[in-house]
Amino acid sequence: MSGVINNFLNNDSFFKISQTIGSSKINWFFENIFIYSEGVFEQTKQISHVLLNDLIKNSSEDKIETSPVAIPLLEDILIELKATKIVKAQLKLISKTENISEFPLIKNNQDNLTAIMYLNKNDGYSYIEGIGKIKSEENRIVIFPSNTPHFESSSTNVSYRALLILEYSVD
């Protein structure tokens, strides 16, 4: 499965995610990042929360890094995606910038799928090679092979751009 799906989750499931990201259940981590805008690098802010990361394991116990809100937050999405394994799941809030700025290009090496779910409507976008620009619309998801080059942008018309990014596999 790949492509863009609008109204991916039913209203109740989507509302549960929206409520969770605004709650005190999530510990957000602040990052200063540099993105490219109109020929120069611009500093912006991003906060993120790793829900699950199978790529970083505790060497002494070999446990997968997991957030306490991961399963309740992801369960409806994983059912819809028919995911059999989650490699990584992360929430990102990208702060507003004066001009739309683009993040560096990303290309994962794994033979998995990546899903980017848009949690709010704004003028930011994702760019996925072979698909093009995908505008941020609430409850929209784009799915593509993880080794496809892609990048995110900032937004200018809301305080932050909210994304849920999953890397997963299906059998």
Question: How is this fold's topology laid out?
Answer:
Blueprint: E1 3-5, H1 11-21, E2 29-37, E3 40-57, E4 64-66, H2 70-81, E5 85-95, E6 113-118, E7 125-128, E8 132-135, E9 140-145, E10 150-152, E11 160-169
Antiparallel strand pairs: 1-9, 2-3, 3-4, 3-5, 5-11, 6-9, 6-11, 7-8, 7-10
Task: Characterise the protein shown here.
The structure is a single chain. Helix 1 (11-21) packs antiparallel against helix 2. This protein is mainly beta and 171 residues long. Helix content is 13%, strand content 45%. It has helices at residues 11-21, 70-81; strands at residues 3-5, 29-37, 40-57, 64-66, 85-95, 113-118, 125-128, 132-135, 140-145, 150-152, 160-169.
| Distance between the amino and carboxyl termini | 12 Å
How much helicity do the residues have?
A: 10-25%
The chain-level structural class is: mainly beta
Number of strands: 11
What proportion strand? over 45%
Shape: globular
Topology as a string of helices (H) and strands (E): EHEEEHEEEEEEE
How would you characterize the largest beta sheet?
A: 8 strands, antiparallel
Radius of gyration: 16 Å
Stretches where pLDDT falls below 50 for ≥5 residues?
none
* Total of helices: 2
Calculate the mean pLDDT score and round it.
85
